[in-house]
């Protein structure tokens, strides 16, 4: 009998799940992707600025996996026919904005945590005497603490504030003192269970990486992430339902009953399995009756709101010879990071074209600082960027603001255990995927969706 599977959520995790389901299930399996907004892609969105394609969400993904192979995102791009469309950024250094000057990010750190304190070159002054071998590992097996708690206790506050905070903030928009070590830096958490010093743990974690010398760290899709979304939707051969939210999922024997659309005029659908690939709170609402323990485990996850400011500056606008920079929270700016987009991605434009700069605004706990009009946010970003690069910038010829309200999950210590408990409490035929559970970044989200598809496929085979 032909099976029907619902994937709730049309971001990259949901689409990766749909593609994997298409590969694993019989050809006549019906896969339905429900996306309550009017477009697929979630936080992958390609926009236009001064005639150029510029990302309004994630601009790239990791090229390699920790085992030395291709990342899940690269493998996925090949699977959906875009292997030949992958491009890599130019080899440009990045910097930290500290005290009104730009300083190169020290080489050899692990998300800002150094394994060799001599490489910091004055960017931060560590407390070298604190990282003593006490005769036992830094962490007990399975223990989870905040990144900042571990680094602060071993290297002092300045390393956290000037290096780790901006590096983590660039990815999660969060603070090191509130982010889980196991969720954000799993390799370091693993080596901290055996190493007696933080320096030793960082070096051991770095040694686990098998990235080949010269291998690009990042990759993107020529033409924009929108191409990846479109190719995934095509490869999944799924029925796409846009603008119709799923309001309830109800167990009905061996099947699932879905209630869709507005309450006054509900629609229904029945499927054999469900994959939830939505943020934590919507997922918890949908799980409240079907899997209350799972809902409780993930429902309190907090999110940070951020905004992106895209600006097209006149051709020839002088900028530092960098791919961009990160800003420590202590600098007090609304801008937390900036990418010199056309320098980082030279395939975008030829000589004489506009200079595209993209700034990221806002951090966890600073939502009120984003409560301005788009024009006001652009003015703040433009002024702060000029101050951070050391000179007033010319007016932008074109610009936009992209807001991502509640866009980035904040993984508090203990997050991996809560996720494991949520999955363990799920009834058969229901799976979870996405950034709310397994981490931000396109490769992690792709792998999360594929894992959910594997679980559902195995369940359906055993029916």
Short description:
With 463 residues, this protein is an alpha+beta fold.
Strand order of the largest sheet: 8-7-18-19-20-17-21
Q: How does the helix and strand content classify structurally?
A: alpha+beta
Question: Overall pLDDT, averaged?
Answer: 95
How many domains in all? 3
What's the tally of helices? 15
| Quantity of strands, as a count | 22
CATH third-level topology of the largest domain: FAD/NAD(P)-binding domain
Spatial gap, N to C terminus: 11 Å
Shape: globular
CATH architecture of the largest domain: 3-Layer(bba) Sandwich
Kindly estimate the percentage of residues that lie in beta strands according to DSSP. Answer: 15-25%
Quick one: CATH superfamily of the largest domain? FAD/NAD(P)-binding domain
Q: Rg, please?
A: 23 Å
The biggest beta sheet, please? 7 strands, mixed
Main attributes of the structure:
463 residues; alpha+beta; FAD/NAD(P)-binding domain; Polyamine Oxidase, Chain A, domain 2; protoporphyrinogen ix oxidase, domain 3; Coproporphyrinogen III oxidase
Word description of this protein:
By secondary structure, the protein is an alpha+beta fold. The chain has three domains: 4-44 and 224-301 and 411-462, 3-Layer(bba) Sandwich (FAD/NAD(P)-binding domain); 46-69 and 85-91 and 302-410, Polyamine Oxidase, Chain A, domain 2 (Alpha-Beta Complex); 105-126 and 139-208, Orthogonal Bundle (protoporphyrinogen ix oxidase, domain 3). The protein has 15 helices and 22 strands. The strands form six sheets. It has a seven-stranded mixed sheet. A five-stranded parallel sheet has the order 12-2-1-16-22, covered by helices on one side. Strand 14 (255-260) and strand 15 form a beta hairpin. The mean pLDDT is 95.
């Amino acid at each position: 009998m032909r099976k029907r599977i619902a994937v709730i959520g049309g971001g990259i995790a949901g689409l990766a799940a749909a593609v994997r389901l298409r590969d694993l299930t019989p050809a006549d399996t019906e896969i339905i992707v429900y996306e309550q907004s009017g477009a697929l892609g979630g936080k992958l969105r390609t926009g236009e600025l001064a005639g150029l394609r510029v990302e309004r969400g994630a601009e790239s993904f990791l090229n390699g996996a920790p085992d030395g192979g291709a990342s899940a995102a690269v493998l996925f791009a090949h699977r959906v026919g875009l292997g030949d469309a992958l491009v890599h950024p130019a080899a440009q250094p990045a910097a930290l904005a500290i005290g009104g000057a730009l300083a190169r990010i020290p080489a050899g750190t692990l998300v800002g945590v150094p394994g060799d304190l001599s490489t910091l070159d004055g960017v931060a002054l560590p407390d070298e005497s604190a990282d003593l071998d006490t005769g036992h590992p830094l962490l007990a097996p399975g223990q989870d603490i905040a990144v900042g708690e571990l680094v602060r206790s071993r290297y002092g506050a300045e390393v956290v504030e000037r290096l780790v905070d901006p590096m983590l903030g660039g990815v999660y928009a969060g603070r090191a003192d509130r982010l889980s070590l196991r969720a954000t830096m799993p390799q370091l958490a693993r080596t901290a269970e055996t190493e007696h010093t933080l320096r030793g743990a960082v070096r051991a974690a770095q040694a686990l990486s098998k990235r080949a010398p010269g291998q690009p760290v990042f990759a993107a899709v020529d033409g924009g992430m929108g191409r990846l979304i479109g190719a995934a939707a095509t490869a999944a051969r799924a029925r796409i339902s846009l603008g119709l939210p799923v309001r309830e999922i109800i167990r009905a024997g061996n099947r699932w009953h879905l209630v869709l659309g507005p309450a006054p005029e509900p629609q229904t659908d029945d499927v054999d399995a469900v994959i939830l690939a939505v943020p934590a709170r919507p997922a918890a609402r949908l799980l409240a009756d079907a899997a209350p323990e799972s809902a409780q485990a993930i429902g309190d996850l907090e999110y940070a709101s951020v905004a992106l400011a895209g600006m097209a500056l006149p051709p020839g606008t002088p900028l530092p010879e960098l791919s961009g920079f990160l800003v420590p929270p202590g600098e007090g700016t609304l801008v937390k990071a900036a990418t010199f987009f056309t320098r980082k991605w030279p395939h975008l434009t030829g000589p004489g074209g506009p200079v595209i700069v993209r700034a990221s605004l806002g951090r966890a706990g600073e939502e009120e600082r984003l409560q301005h009009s788009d024009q006001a946010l652009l003015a703040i970003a433009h002024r702060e960027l000029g101050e951070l690069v050391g000179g007033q910038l010319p007016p932008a010829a074109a610009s936009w603001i992209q807001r991502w309200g509640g866009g980035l999950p904040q993984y508090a210590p203990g997050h991996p255990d809560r996720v494991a408990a949520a999955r363990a409490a799920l009834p058969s035929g229901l799976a979870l995927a996405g950034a709310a559970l397994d981490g931000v970044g396109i490769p992690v989200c792709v792998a999360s969706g594929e894992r959910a598809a594997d679980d559902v496929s195995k369940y359906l085979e055993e029916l």
